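Record 1 of the preview.
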Amino acid sequence: MIVVSAASGALGRLVVAELLTKVPAGQVVAAVREPGHAADLAAQGAEVRRGDYDDAASLRDAFDGADRLLLISSPELDTARRTAQHLAAIEAADAAGIDTIVYTSFLGADRAGDGMNAAHHATERALVASGPGHTVLRHPFYSDAFVNPGLRAAVDSGRLVSATGGRGLNTASRADLAAAAAVVLTDDGHAGRSYDLTGPLWTYPQLAEELTRATGRPVAHQAGDVPGPMGFLMGLARAGALERQTDDLHHLLGRPPTSLRQAVAAALAG
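->
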């Protein structure tokens, strides 16, 4: 039996859907904070159980009888609380007799434990010291945050603004990362391994070209300030922090990850 924690989130729902194409529905458990918000998962055939990262007893119950756990990292922003939630899940998995934990970490968490990677770094270290076997899936930023239906505004204005300095982004789609997780959860040979997952490198000037190509309407890239969280992400790109590339995602998927052209077509069709 395979249990997916935080299964009612965007990534979790995609993983559950992928698993249901690979194993019988009776072997898939969706652990969620609020079971009432996961009726769609139950309708697909998954067993829905309450599993709250802040309630260790609920996690032990949710993980009972399972062989493998996908521990999707908590969305909590406070590092101390997020780390505590992950450690509680690991302890519950050990108590429930889970054989293997697959954890969604972040690129670079193996090398640094500061900033946004602090909780991931601590969790990876805890996994090494834990009873169950483990596999680490280090994610990049989601392509979905950058390439989405909101790009229609750029098409309408004919202008795509970024603060990336033309540097590359190694993002990957949630769908591809969910498919990779499902592969690791259903295949043998991944225990004890870590994967650094990246999509194909792309730039905002290339994104403007793809928008032009897809719509037949000219969209020009323009450098400029971008406020808020997106501006922060673009600042990381401008510093060259998002250009690392590996073949790990391609290897797990058995196909190339979603290209920028494919992502643009899907975003504009959504």
